Amino acid sequence: MKRAIKEHGTRAIDRRSRLGKALTQWQSELIADLGGIEQVSTQQKALVDLCVRTKLLLDSLDAWLLAQGSLVNARKKSVYPALLSRTQLSDSLARYLGALGLQRRAKPGRSLGDLLSKGSVGE
Predict the structure, then answer these.
(1) Angstrom distance (rounded) from CA 71 to CA 8
(2) CA distance 122 to 96
(3) Would you write out the chain's pLDDT as a tens digit for each of its 123 residues?
(4) Domain boundaries, the chain
(5) Distance (Å, whole) CA 86 – CA 66
(6) Quick one: how far is CA 120 from the chain centroid?
(7) Angle, nearest 10°, between helix axes 42-67 and 81-100?
């Protein structure tokens, strides 16, 4: 999966699958929180794509780690290296989200001129 995502980006995920639908919904919610697709810059779109990919990898790693009997390798008496990778991924996701901004932005309203020109006052 990692290789497919690296080569094809999030296009490698079947958007008809439950995972694909969940990621698409999360991406849509993230864009809506930024004020809608019309308000999102190209740079923000790139960060949103990075967020979606990182979330996919993080969720996959979380599922694997939680399926393990223990997070400690008893033979080596240390935590699994995947736990460090998980921490790095979560830090990356937090940085990307911080760069996008943590405040929800409202979609801009229509101006009075737009309303009057379209005759949609009272609609």
Answers:
(1) 32
(2) 41
(3) 555 555 445 555 666 677 788 888 999 999 999 989 998 999 999 999 999 989 989 998 998 888 888 888 888 888 888 999 999 999 999 999 999 987 777 666 666 666 667 665 555
(4) 2-104
(5) 12
(6) 36
(7) 150
Question: Residue 79 — φ and ψ, nearest 5°?
Answer: -75, 155
Token code pair at residue 41: 């810059």
What's the first-to-final CA gap in the chain, in angstroms? 49
- How many C-alpha atoms does 46 have within 13 Å on its Cβ side? 4
Whole-angstrom Cα distance, residue 47 to residue 34?
12
Distance CA(71)–CA(67), nearest Å, equals 10
Residue 120 makes CB contacts below 8 A (sequence gap 6+) with: none
Residue 68's φ and ψ, nearest 5 degrees, are -75, 150
